[in-house]
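Cont'd.
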Amino acid sequence: DLPTTFDQPVHIGVIGGTGLAQLEGYEPIALVNPVTPWGTPASPISILSHNGVNIAFLARHGLHHQYAPHEVPNRANIAALRHLGVRCVIAFSAVGSLQEEIKPMDFVVPDQVIDRTKGIRPFTFFEGGVVGHVGFADPFDKKLADIVKTCAAHMKGDGVVLHDKGTIICMEGPQFSTRAESHMYRSWGGSVINMSALPEAKLAREAELSYQMICMATDYDCWHSYEDVNVEMVIKYMQANSQNAKRLVGGVLDQLSKLDHSDLVLAKHWEGASQGSVKFM
Ligand code: ADE
C-alpha cells in the first residue's frame, strides 16, 4: 500500500547484491518503479526513511534474484537512481578471494578494478550521437571509501575484518573462473573477483554519481585448493556474515545521512559537454 511516486529529494542510494537483497530496520515510505529510456530497474526501488533522511534501495539481481550477473539491467538501475536525485551510491557485492589474507567473511573496500567482462553487457549511456568520455582512472570514490573504513574500524571488536584497498577483477560469468585464469588474476595483482562491479561502476561515473563498492568475501577462488568454487559455499558464508554486512551498511548510512550530499558529488562531467543531452527520464 506504499505510494508508488515520490517527489522529495533522495540523495543516498544503496545497491544490494547477493546476500543483501533488502535493508531491514528502516521505515519504507514509498516503492517506486521508474521507467527509464533503458527500461525498468531490476527491482522496484524502496524509499526508506532514516533519521529523517531518504535512502533509495535497489536489489541488483531483482527481488527474487532473477537476473544473472550478465542480465542485470545496469543502465536502467543507474538511470533510475539518478532520476530520483541520488548523488552517492554504496554498492554491495559478494566476491571470491584471490589473496590468502582475504579470508571468507572479510570485507574489502576496493580502490581499483580490472575489466574482464566480455563487452556483451550494455556498458555506456553515450551512444547514438551522444558522444562523451569520462575519466575512470580511479573508479571508486575516496570520500565514500573513507566513511566505510571508519565505520568498519568501529566494528573491529565484533570480529569485522576490513581490507582498506584492493583490486576487483570483474569477470563475465556466469561460470566461475578456470584455475589458470584464477592464477593469472593473482599475477595481475587482483585481490578479489566478482561478476557485478562492471559496468555498474562505469555507468555510475557517467551519470555523475559518486560510487563505492563494499565487497564481502564468500570463498577463496579456485587458485586456493583443489575444490571448485560452488554456489553452496558462497551462500553459506554469505548467510553466516549477513548480520555484519547489514550492520556495516547501517553504520555507513548513519554517517552518510549526517553529511551534506552535495559534497559527495564528483566533478561535473555533464556540464557544458554534449553529455548534457543524455536524459535520464
Ligand atoms: N562471487 C563470489 N565468489 C566469486 C568467485 N569466486 N568468482 C566470481 N564471482 C564470485
